[in-house]
Structure formats: structure tokens, C-alpha cells
């Protein structure tokens, strides 16, 4: 059985807690709560606030994309690569709106892990079960070791 990596252990200790002290300042601003994490999977809940909305008072597409990108990024970090990996694309389909006060769950699943590239799929679902957005993203390995940048 593979031993648990430090990154995964770090996130497992945060289950049930607000994600406001992660290495991602943009993600910290969303006030998510970690619900689940395993190698290759993560789920985070968010509550839509007025600051997350567009003029129609529904979740802004850019904020939805940030939620997805941040959950994928954290899940990728928890997957255990010793190198920093970064998004090279993010394809998002916006399928329905979410209003102020609605609770959302964003989950990300690793579809394929390669030597240099990880492919992820993610979805935002509201309490009603309706899909708000779905996405796919590829993360590429950089030359930076996480230890070299203090992670």
C-alpha cells in the first residue's frame, strides 16, 4: 500500500474547515470548506455571496471558473507531485445559474495522470442537484520543485 504523501495529509487535516490559509490568495477569498479529499479527488463547498455575482445577481462565470480552477489545483497538489504543476487550459461549460445564498459543491476528479500532464474533470452542483458548470483542465509539470518555493 502506498504511503500517504505530505500534501494529501495536509488537506486531510483541513476536512470540515474553511479554506482561507492555503497557498492560493484568490482561492482563499472564496471562503470554501473542504468536504472530501483523496488522491485524485477533492470536494469543496461554497456559499454564493453578493461579491461573487454579476449584475444579474447570479454567480459570475469568472468566479465559477476560479472555484473550479482552485479545487483542481488543490486536488492536483494533493495528488503528490514533487513539482509545481500549472493549468495550461480550463474549458468551462456554464449550464445554469446560482443565486446569492445558494450552497454549491465543487468536485474535481483526476482522469489521467501522466509523466508531465494531468487531466482533470470538475463540476459545480447546487443543493437542488442541478449542475451549474462542468469543466476539464490540463495541468503541466513545471521545472520548479515544491520544496524550492516553500510548499
Automatic annotation (TrEMBL):
Residues 57-131 form the Thioesterase domain. Keywords: Hydrolase. The lineage of its organism: Bacteria, Pseudomonadati, Bacteroidota, Cytophagia, Cytophagales. InterPro entries: ACOT13, HotDog_dom_sf, PAAI_dom, Thioestr_dom. It comes from Algoriphagus halophytocola. This is PaaI family thioesterase. The keyword Hydrolase applies. It comes from the Bacteria. Belongs to the thioesterase PaaI family.
Amino acid at each position: 500500500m502506498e504511503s500517504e504523501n505530505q500534501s494529501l495529509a495536509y488537506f486531510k487535516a483541513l476536512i470540515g474547515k474553511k479554506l482561507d490559509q492555503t497557498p492560493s490568495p484568490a482561492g482563499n477569498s472564496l471562503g470554501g470548506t473542504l468536504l472530501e479529499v483523496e488522491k485524485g479527488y477533492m470536494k469543496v463547498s461554497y456559499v454564493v455571496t453578493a461579491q461573487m455575482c454579476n449584475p444579474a445577481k447570479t454567480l459570475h462565470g469568472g468566479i465559477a471558473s476560479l472555484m473550479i480552477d482552485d479545487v483542481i489545483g488543490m486536488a492536483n497538489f494533493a495528488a503528490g507531485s514533487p513539482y509545481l504543476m500549472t493549468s495550461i487550459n480550463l474549458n468551462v461549460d456554464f449550464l445554469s445559474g446560482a443565486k446569492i445564498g445558494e450552497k454549491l459543491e465543487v468536485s474535481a476528479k483526476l482522469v489521467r495522470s501522466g509523466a508531465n500532464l494531468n487531466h482533470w474533470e470538475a463540476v459545480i452542483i447546487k443543493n437542488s442537484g442541478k449542475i451549474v458548470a462542468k469543466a476539464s483542465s490540463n495541468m503541466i509539470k513545471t521545472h520548479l520543485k515544491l520544496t524550492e518555493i516553500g510548499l
